[in-house]
TrEMBL record:
Localization per Swiss-Prot or TrEMBL: Cell membrane
Cofactors demanded by this protein: Mg(2+)
Topological type in the membrane: Multi-pass membrane protein
Domain of life: Bacteria
InterPro entries, alphabetized: dCache_1, Diguanylate_Cyclase, GGDEF_dom, Nucleotide_cyclase, Rev_trsase/Diguanyl_cyclase, Sensor-like_sf
Organism of origin: Marinomonas piezotolerans
Identification of the protein by name: diguanylate cyclase
Listed transmembrane segments: 6-28, 333-357
Catalytic activity reported: 2 GTP = 3',3'-c-di-GMP + 2 diphosphate
GGDEF domain residues: 462-590
GO CC field: plasma membrane
Pfam families per the UniProt record, alphabetical: dCache_1, GGDEF
Length: 590
């Protein structure tokens, strides 16, 4: 392998960095500025969206709030319908805090109608009430509000409608059809240069009979004016639109609907005179987009606004790329110059650092490569004014003084450590295979030793017997006397099994209150005798609580072990144990 000098290792990379720094920084700056500028533009958009979103919520939520209040109030006080003049006062006062609220109305099931009316283009003096029950012919007429008698003098010059029946109006019929609160479609207000939307809800009494319909309505001109009042960057746009693209409000000055042959037609984004908004209308899926219109790149973000009752509008914000890119590009030249100066300075500093630290490190290198402890001891002191190199030299000298002692004691320590690890491993091995409570093999230990016993029985052609036993009614012992007595019962059974089987027989706690025994080279009658002794021991020496324990046994005895596996033996003996427990317990099934 080719080697390099310390000087070259330090200086050459610095020089390369200084050489390539300009190109690297230029590329990184260009990419970074692009990413940052996009983020700046998106942040500007989201900040604007947040303001508009909050304003729309503040504008629309009172509609549902007032409708809910009036619906619930009339439903709980149907007697109010006997005095609609008083109700008109309620509607009038509800509208006072909301200058954009055009109508708050109540229509009864018998055709009476009252509302609070406000001119969306007027002032406070244009707020009054109207009804169709003061006139005997059900003429809908406007009246001044009187805080004492509620319905004041009739207002001359205001339009009136002969035989007005609110039950024929869309707001009434749609609410009754839906049997719940519902939005009207957005449409131009009659007589006003504005779009409007209303929300209505049917009112039922406790028996479910229809009492009437209450509604609220607003002129959307307030939203249009709000969007136009936002101080946007040049050539930027904000719009509110329905999901089909029909416009609700925009920051531009164009009208939102045209009147053709006596019919009002809504303006949609796709048909807008402004080419930027027209292009936005081609993408009405939530997300961020970029497109080019008339030589200008635009960042476009479309975001849904969720209104009560599942109504959803779209809010779109479009800003030109030139706004946020030019804002950051002016900093790129200065940043590039500063970074280049830094890289050149680093290259010069690297050369000085290589000279300052290289010489003492070379001395250390020569001493270490000499393979002589004496050479290390004779290094000049202080080796360097660099703290770390000085400390390294001192450490090498101290190491040389103690290295011989370390080497002499190393073999002894290794031997001691090896012995200790061997003992620890044996302890861990025993702990991992022994049941903590009974000191018998656990299931893991049983599997290890039983596999060996099965293999050995096959090899020597010896008999093999497996016994699986279970303490009868052990759950009752635990439930009635407690788990401490239950643990004593497990210990008693384990002690009896170990006492009456040979030392080389396998006795294990298989799980819970189950125990397993494996014997090899033992007659079956001898196995049965030992099991009987276990039973007698448990009867003659009950638990500390005088609990006499009995066991159910499943026994499988093989004169010769052929192709049997440990799993098949366990399945067979488990089935026999199950038979013993289901035929009376305290017995052996073999």
């Amino acid at each position: 392998m080719r080697q390099v000098s310390l000087w070259g290792l330090i200086v050459i990379p610095f020089a390369l960095l200084a050489t390539l720094g300009g190109v690297t920084v230029f590329v990184l700056s260009a990419v970074t500025i692009t990413n940052v500028s996009d983020n700046v533009g998106l942040h500007y958009i989201k900040e604007t969206e947040s303001r508009v979103h909050r304003r729309v919520k503040e504008f629309m939520i009172p509609l549902s709030t007032i409708v809910e209040i009036n619906r619930d109030a009339i439903a709980h006080h149907p007697e109010w319908l006997d005095d609609l003049d008083r109700v008109s006062s309620r509607l009038y006062e509800q509208a006072i805090p909301y200058p954009f609220m055009t109508f708050i109305s109540l229509a009864t099931a018998d055709g009476r109608y009252v509302n609070s009316t406000r001119d969306p283009f007027g002032g406070p003096e244009d707020h009054h009430i109207a009804n169709n029950y003061t006139s005997e012919s059900r003429r809908l007429e406007a009246y001044e509000y009187d805080p004492v008698v509620y319905v004041g003098p009739r207002m001359e010059g205001e339009p009136s409608y002969e035989g007005y029946d609110p039950r024929m109006r869309p707001f009434y019929r749609e609410a009754v059809r839906q049997q719940g609160m519902t939005w009207s479609s957005i449409s131009p207000y009659y007589g006003y240069n504005s779009l409007g939307i209303s929300l209505s809800a049917p009112i039922y009494d406790d028996q479910g009979s229809l009492l009437g319909v209450t509604a609220t309505s607003v002129a959307l001109i307030s939203l249009d004016k709000y969007l136009q009042s936002i101080d946007l960057v040049d050539n930027s746009y904000i719009f509110l639109a329905e999901k089909n693209g029909d416009l609700i409000a925009t920051s531009s000055q164009e009208t939102l609907y045209d009147k053709t042959d006596g019919y009002n037609e809504r303006m949609s984004l796709g048909e807008h005179l402004n080419p930027v908004l027209q292009r936005a209308g081609q993408q009405l899926t939530e997300g961020a987009y970029q497109f080019r219109v008339e030589g200008e790149n635009y960042l476009y973000h479309l975001h849904p606004i969720e209104l009560p009752l599942g109504e959803e509008w779209y809010m779109g914000v479009l800003i030109p790329e030139s706004y946020y890119r030019n804002m950051l590009m002016e900093y790129s030249a200065a940043i590039l110059f500063i970074i280049l100066v830094i890289f050149i300075s680093i290259a010069l500093a690297g050369s000085l650092i290589a000279r300052f630290i290289g010489q003492p490190i070379l001395q250390l290198n020569d001493a270490v490569n000499s393979n002589s402890l004496e050479r290390i001891r004779t290094l000049p002191q202080p080796l360097s004014r660099v703290r770390e190199i000085y400390s390294l030299g001192q450490g090498l000298q101290g190491m040389a003084d103690t290295l011989s002692d370390v080497m002499q004691n190393l073999e002894k320590k290794v031997a001691q450590r090896t012995s200790y690890l061997k003992d620890e491993n044996e302890v861990l091995q025993e702990q991992s295979s022994t049941d903590e409570l009974t000191a018998l093999y656990n299931r893991r230990g049983f599997k290890l030793v039983s596999e060996r016993a099965l293999t050995e029985a096959k090899r020597l052609d010896q008999s093999l017997c497996m016994v699986l036993c279970d303490i009868d009614h052990f759950k009752e012992v635990n439930d009635s006397l407690g788990h401490t007595v239950g643990d004593q019962a497990l210990i008693s059974v384990a002690r009896a099994l170990k006492q009456h089987f040979r030392g080389d027989d396998i006795v294990a706690r298989y799980g819970g209150e189950e125990f397993v025994v494996i014997t090899t080279n033992m007659q079956k009658r001898d196995v049965m005798t030992r099991l009987h002794r276990v039973r007698q021991t448990l009867i003659e020496h009950p638990n500390p609580q005088d609990v006499i324990l009995t066991l159910s046994y499943g026994v499988t005895y093989l004169d010769h072990v052929a192709d049997e596996t440990l799993d098949t033996l366990i399945d067979e003996v488990d089935a026999k144990l199950y038979q013993a427990k289901n035929t009376g317990r305290d017995k052996v099934v073999s």
